[in-house]
Design brief:
Largest sheet: none
Keywords: Coiled coil
Shape: elongated
Number of helices: 6
Length: 319
């Protein structure tokens, strides 16, 4: 009785839920039926599925023997066995290798012919390119670039030499200035030179000569005009050296500048060689046409095609 009551209550609930619009109803029986059919279809598909397995070693040997039998049957060699069969198989392998080698050789020859044809076409194209205005312009620009590169290099060499020249000139001016300052503070005194052996000492200039014994009138000799003593030149302690410094220091300075002068003379000799090489290089570049005026790039063939190209190229004068 209780079970009957529960069933009746569920039925009442279901009917109460389904009351009203049927589109909003809830049906468990339809969903269960759909799931059942899906499970049955999955089971059927699993039964029909075929699983591939790896063949055993025995099956592989049997298949290999069967394949060899079929090959012998096709070639009519079922009656051939033993050494004769091995000899035939060896000959067959040799023929296969020979055919393979011939095929490779034929392929290589075909590739070689293709390369030769490509080279021939490129040669024709290059020959045509050398006649074009574009090639002539490129050659001119390359020459101009080489010329500019050399001129930049030479300008750097020349600037370096001028810098060395200015340095020596500055050193010489400073040395000469220091010498004048030193002489103004400590002038050299004239010392009489000793007479050579067998000769009399020369008469001192600037004294009266007695001419009465020669029958003449004694006259007063012309006195040598003595140069006024050089005034002591001022010197700057920050630039010049003290004129009262030891004589040994002055001697060392003089010897050092003499060595510097000798080195500079050698530098001038080397510089003359460099300038000579520069003259030859300029002559070579001139022979290559790098100092000529800009040529006309258009030819009879491409004058029409290049007529629209910009003619405002960079001109430069020959040096």
């Amino acid at each position: 009785m209780a079970a009957t009551g529960r069933a009746a209550s569920k039925k009442a609930e279901g009917s109460a839920f389904n009351m009203g619009d049927e589109g909003y109803g809830y049906d468990d029986e339809g969903r269960a039926e759909e799931e059942y059919y899906l499970q049955q279809m999955q089971k059927e598909a699993n039964r029909q599925k075929v699983y591939k397995r790896e063949p055993t070693e025995k099956e592989m040997k049997e298949k290999k023997a069967q394949d060899e039998f079929e090959k012998k049957k096709e070639k009519g060699l079922l009656h051939v066995t033993g050494d004769a069969l091995q000899a035939l198989q060896a000959d067959e392998e040799k023929m296969k290798a020979k055919r393979k080698a011939e095929k490779i050789k034929e392929q290589e020859q075909e590739e070689l012919r293709a390369k030769m044809e490509q080279a021939r076409l490129e040669k024709i194209k290059a020959k045509q390119y050398k006649k074009s205005s574009e090639y002539k312009r490129k050659c001119w620009e390359d020459k101009r670039a080489e010329r500019y590169q050399y001129e930049e290099k030479w300008a750097a060499i020349e600037a370096e030499h001028k810098q060395k020249e200015e340095e020596y000139k500055t050193e010489k001016e400073q040395f000469d200035k220091q010498q004048r300052i030193d002489r103004s503070w400590f002038p050299k005194k004239d010392t009489p030179q000793p007479a050579p052996k067998g000769k009399k000492a020369p008469a001192k200039k600037g004294k009266a000569v007695d001419l009465s014994k020669y029958g003449g009138v004694q006259v007063q000799a012309l006195q040598k005009e003595e140069e006024p003593a050089e005034k002591e030149l001022p010197w700057d302690p920050e630039v010049d050296k003290d004129p009262k410094r030891p004589l040994a220091d002055k001697k060392v300075e003089k010897e050092a500048f003499e060595k510097r002068t000798i080195a500079w003379k050698k530098e001038l000799v080397e510089w003359s060689k460099v300038k000579e090489a520069h003259t030859k290089e300029v002559k070579r570049l001139t022979g290559l046409g790098m100092y000529d005026s800009e040529p006309e790039f258009l030819t009879d063939k491409d004058s029409d095609s290049d007529s629209d190209s910009d003619s405002d190229s960079d001109d430069f004068d020959s040096d």
